[in-house]
Design brief:
Layout: H1 3-10, H2 22-34, H3 40-48, H4 54-78, H5 84-107, H6 112-120
């Protein structure tokens, strides 16, 4: 929403990822939202400097936040009242959110890493 203001202030049009399609930007935001160590503000400000639609941004954000929000909420709810099995299962799920992306990059199962990077390369 503030792109026009920044353009007037800097007297220069700043647009990131001009060659990216809407689909590429939606995937990028979706995967970035899955990673809890990336600042949500940084993602949002960066997306504001692209040509992504508000609808695409909202859908990618919603779908990207659901898995981690569910895991954290479920773990927090059961932390004090859950059995030891539930706590261990919750810890495993949280750990998987960090380990799976690293595993995909290092081991490249089913050529998944190449397919993911191919999607985000400029056409």
């Amino acid at each position: 929403l503030g792109k026009e203001g920044i353009t007037r202030l800097l007297k220069k049009d700043i647009t990131f990822c001009e060659q990216c399609t809407e689909r590429h930007l939606v995937y990028l935001i979706f995967f970035a939202r899955l990673l809890p160590m990336i600042s949500f503000d940084l993602i949002s400000y960066g997306a504001g400097l692209t040509h992504i639609s508000t609808r695409g941004f909202a859908i990618a954000t919603l779908l990207g936040l659901v898995p981690l929000t569910f895991a954290v909420s479920y773990s927090g709810k059961n932390f004090f009242s859950a059995s030891q099995t539930s706590l261990i299962l919750g810890a495993i799920f949280v750990l998987l959110f960090f380990v799976v992306p690293i595993w995909i990059k290092r081991r490249n199962p089913w050529g998944l890493y190449e397919r993911m990077t191919k999607i985000f390369r400029a056409e």
